[in-house]
Amino acid sequence: MVKKRRNNHFKKKKKKKKKKKKKKKKKKKKKKKKKKKKKKKKKQVNKKKKMKKKKKKKKKVKKKKKKKKKKKRKKKKKKKKKKKKWKSTHRTGSYITTKEVAQCLNFRTSGSLEPTPFDAPMAFFTSLKEDIIRTHQDGITRTTSHSSPTRA
User: Fold this and answer.
1) Whole-angstrom Cα distance, residue 86 to residue 81?
2) What does the pLDDT look like over 137-151, one tens digit per residue?
3) What ranges make up the beta strands (E) of the chain?
4) ∠ CA 146-93-116 to the nearest 5 degrees?
5) Start-to-end C-alpha separation, the chain
6) DSSP secondary structure letter of residue 69
């Protein structure tokens, strides 16, 4: 009888110990889970912050690039304008470029409604053509470039 009681006592003790161990394990698991969750959340927040920073930097770089492009475009436009101005001031008298002649001839033949540099009858162009041929035969070289004609 005493033996049985004693055995029971130890059995109960063992059971209690087991229960305690189980409880401890459960608590540990819960703690671990909580820690993991916290870590995950922190990681996500950090990721979000990083992404925001990256986006801001990208935007800044994009803005800088856009500004640079705009400046370049403006410079190009200014250069073009300057070049055009230079050309017009260096024209000698009523000198017409071959490009303009071709443009006007095209306008006459095609009959399109595009505006021409000047309005003149077809006869003017034919006489001009003959004049150019004559000047070439006389030994005067006329360049087809946009610069003023050079005389040899």
Assistant:
1) 9
2) 565 454 444 455 555
3) none
4) 65
5) 141
6) H
Sorted by where each begins, the domain ranges of the chain are 23-89, 96-152
- Residue 54, phi then psi, degrees to nearest 5: -60, -45
**CA-to-CA distance for 73 and 66, rounded, in angstroms?**
10
- For residue 132, what is the enclosing H or E element? helix 122-137
Number of Cβ within 10 Å of residue 130's Cβ equals 10
How does pLDDT run across 29-74, given as a tens digit for each residue?
888 888 888 888 888 888 888 888 888 888 888 888 888 888 888 8
The SS3 call for residue 66 is helix
The rounded distance, in Å, linking the Cα atoms of 112 and 8 is: 117
Let me know: does 87 contact 96? Beta carbons within 8 Å: no
